[in-house]
Backbone:
């Protein structure tokens, strides 16, 4: 029995860094100015969750209702829609309008401060497109400048040892950013973008 206890304790010590990556990050709302008593509560709740949200477990935040201006370009082959799925959830704080502390049934509060890079606003025309289909030529798309998606179409793209997820064959905010800060790059990137390494996972240039 003692051996089992020691083994369990050791496993917990090794697992702790992976479990605590939100702590101390920009998504740790126990820090000022919010000083919440729980790290996870701004987005998740064990009871009374919004079950209409399929893209995040036990969703606890008010979801943005803003209308967004999306990126457009004559060279864009993918179909782009208004932010949906995970991207819409990210924009429920990063739209600069919806309150960050609108959670647990609240719909108002303090929106993200203006003048900081994380405040994207509702005009996304100068940002990387999100909720855009990944039109790689290898899987029936038209964009030869994109690397082939991994074997299970619509799930991920891999290059240089880095794998980025796709969501129903779409690029979303979470394709490049890890909301739980488990990647190696900042700001909350899934991997470092040194020498454009993150960009080159998808873009074959």
Residues:
């Amino acid at each position: 029995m003692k051996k089992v206890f020691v083994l369990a304790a050791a496993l917990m010590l090794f697992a702790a860094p992976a479990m605590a990556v939100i702590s101390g990050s920009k998504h740790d709302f126990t820090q000022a100015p919010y000083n919440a008593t729980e790290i996870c509560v701004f987005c998740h709740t064990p009871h009374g969750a919004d079950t209409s949200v399929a893209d995040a477990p036990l969703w606890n935040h008010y979801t943005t209702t803003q209308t967004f201006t999306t990126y457009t370009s004559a060279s864009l082959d993918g179909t782009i829609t208004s932010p949906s799925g995970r991207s819409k959830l990210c924009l429920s704080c990063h739209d600069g309008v919806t309150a960050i502390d609108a959670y647990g049934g609240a719909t108002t509060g303090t929106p993200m401060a203006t003048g900081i890079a994380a405040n994207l606003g509702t005009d996304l025309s100068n940002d990387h497109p999100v909720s855009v289909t990944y039109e790689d030529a290898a899987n029936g798309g038209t964009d030869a400048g994109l690397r082939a998606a991994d074997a299970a179409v619509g799930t991920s793209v891999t290059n240089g040892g880095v794998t980025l997820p796709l969501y129903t064959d779409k690029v979303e905010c979470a394709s490049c950013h890890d909301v739980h800060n488990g990647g190696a790059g900042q700001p909350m990137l899934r991997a470092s973008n040194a020498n454009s390494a993150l960009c080159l996972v998808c873009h074959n240039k």
